[in-house]
Design brief:
Length: 387
């Protein structure tokens, strides 16, 4: 049985192709591996496992929608992964896929749905872009300028792919059907199949005079500047969707969406947990004992807070609603101020005398350490064998 992990599988790695691989490269890689590992050819149980992986990878990467899910970090075959290949889907079928299924996958048979010429105009892919923001920007929102590098509609031909004043021509090789029938001899015997017409790549039409700007693709790559409105309260890892700002499809097809993924830079003072913020403030031992008033710089204001007399080390002050605004709805997280009570490290003679008198009045026993070699240095010597 196929094992499905929570972690997205490396479908590109399984087929040994790059993330930028074209549909043809994916198909070629699959065909090569499928021939090598098909159980009819290679009865080794490990090969069968491998064959299942290869099929899963091809199922995903040959489907634009599933491939997008992979490119966005998901796994369309994972339970609840949003793909049609969940339990009961094509990916879950049988111990291995029959040879005809492979042929169908190549040549657009039953598994591929309707036959006939494929449309030149197809929807574009989604795109993703990382955006680094500092805490102030994620907390209060910002209008961030971004530069996007995607395919856009070719303005010379408006997506048609044909040079000015020219038109598509019906493919003479297939008569416009986009496919040709053929009988193939394989190791399973004769297989009759319809394969895409190689002259028109299955479109049923050819472009006798391609548009000089886009070479017939109907789209060109370009850098664009956009402004993305980041709402207050976003968090590291969140994605903002900009509808139809992704890649324009072949033949000028509807653009996919653009996802802007938020990356929050670490802050010098505050660490963020959800919408709460945490910071550390050092308080002298005397101030902790006697109580004091602190001025705390928050993200957007200054607050005066009282440290109660007798405050213990590792105490925390909570400033309500001084954290990050909630993304949806009203209100804000809290700011937690962690107090570091600091013991003085150097005392002059007067200070030491006063502190000893203070200890005496409280009946606290304090051993006298000689200036040369106190208790701790004697301990150290003992550990080092110098005693
Ligand atoms: Zn063009
Ligand atoms: Zn043709």
């Amino acid at each position: 049985m196929r094992t499905r992990n929570a972690v997205a599988r490396d479908y590109y790695g399984i087929l040994g192709v790059s993330r930028e691989a074209s549909d043809d490269e994916i198909k070629r890689a699959y065909r090569k591996l499928a021939r090598q590992f098909h159980p009819d050819v290679n009865p080794d149980p490990e090969a069968q496992e491998k064959f299942k992986d290869i099929n899963a990878a091809y199922e995903v990467l040959s489907d634009d929608r599933k491939r997008q899910i992979v490119d966005l970090g998901g796994d369309p075959l994972a339970p609840g992964g949003g793909g049609a290949g969940g339990p009961g889907g094509p990916g879950g079928a049988g111990p291995f896929v029959g040879f005809q299924d492979i042929m169908d996958a190549f040549f657009g048979g039953a598994a591929g749905g309707s036959r006939g010429p494929r449309p030149r105009t197809r929807p574009g892919a989604d795109a993703i872009l990382r955006l680094e923001l500092d805490l102030h920007e994620t907390a209060f929102g910002v209008e961030a300028p971004i530069t996007v590098d995607t395919a856009v509609l070719c303005t010379t031909c408006s997506g048609a792919g044909t040079a000015a004043g020219t038109h598509l021509a019906t493919c003479e090789a297939c008569g416009g059907r986009g496919e040709v029938q053929s009988v193939q001899r394989t190791f399973l015997g004769q297989v009759v199949s319809a394969r895409p017409c190689t002259v028109c790549q299955g479109y049923g039409t050819t472009i006798p005079h391609p548009c000089p700007t886009c070479a017939g693709d109907g789209r060109v790559r370009t850098r664009r500047s956009l402004t993305v409105k980041i709402p207050a309260g976003v968090e590291d890892g969140m994605r903002i969707r900009l509808a139809q700002q992704g890649e324009v499809g072949p033949g000028g097809g509807t653009a996919g969406d653009l996802y802007v993924e938020i990356h929050e830079r670490p802050h010098d003072v505050y660490s963020r947990k959800g919408d709460d913020l945490h910071c550390r403030v050092t308080v002298p031992m005397t101030a902790a004992a006697l109580g004091t008033r602190l001025t705390i710089k928050t993200l957007d204001s200054e607050e005066t807070v009282d440290v109660k007399p007798g405050t213990q080390p590792a105490s925390t002050l909570r400033l309500r609603a001084r954290g990050v605004p909630h993304l949806r709805g009203t209100g804000r997280g809290d700011l937690y101020v962690h107090l570091d009570v600091r013991t003085p490290t150097k005392l002059d003679a007067d200070q030491e005398r006063m502190l000893r008198e203070f200890a005496k009045t409280r009946g606290e026993e304090v051993a006298e350490l000689s200036k040369q070699g106190g208790f701790f240095s004697r301990m150290r010597d003992a550990f080092n064998g110098h005693a």
